[in-house]
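lol ok so funny story. i was supposed to be doing the assay writeup but got distracted and ended up predicting the structure for this chain instead. priorities right. anyway since i did it might as well share w the group, maybe its usefull for someone
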Amino acid sequence: MNIAIIPARGGSKRIPRKNIKVFHNKPMIAYSIEAAKISGCFDKIIVSTDDAEIAEVAKQYGAEVPFIRPANISDDFATTLDVMQHAVNWCQQQQWSIDKVCCIYATAPFILPEYIQKGLAELSVDSVQYAFSATTFPFPIQRAITLNKNGFIRMLSPEHINTRSQDLVEAYHDAGQFYWGRASAFMEKKAIFDKHSKMVIIPRKRVQDIDTYEDWELAEALFSVL
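and the output, tada:
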């Protein structure tokens, strides 16, 4: 059995009610639920939430909300692995024979079913514990600049100040859409970003982190032209 778990707590601070805020005529969480359904990868699609309104919206779009997430893993300090461990443990207590689990973020309106499918395919190799969405940085990270305490700049990697861009190793970052994993990996809270994981590369145009109102406006603008 393959299960999708969509974490969606009610206490978003920077964008209140972000998980069900309307984004291009639909609640944000609807995009994740619909992509999971269309992918055909899952026997069950479950939303883990502490919020009654989010639960109701999730059900309207075809997800299940069979439990209410405990308060101790619904605050600002709870990690994704905390939430996933709780959800997988609950499923196992129902005597479900779970093989693979996919954590899909509720704020991923650019997610596509085919990338979810690719993630599942990556887990066909026994040594792979996780497969997650990732994308490339648009600029070489070896040329990154930061500020010191006096407001002056410094390079993070000064040894590359004269290295040609084409000679620098390309770097990737978490796209924040989904994390496939074996049920045992989530239960043991194995690190996701480790040598036992694979990446599913997403085009940069389909990746936008949504944590602030500026992020939201950028996402809406990008979504309208895709």
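Strands lie at 2-7, 22-23, 26-27, 44-48, 100-104, 130-136, 145-147, 153-155, 172-182, 197-201. The chain has one domain: 2-136+171-221.
back to the writeup now i swear
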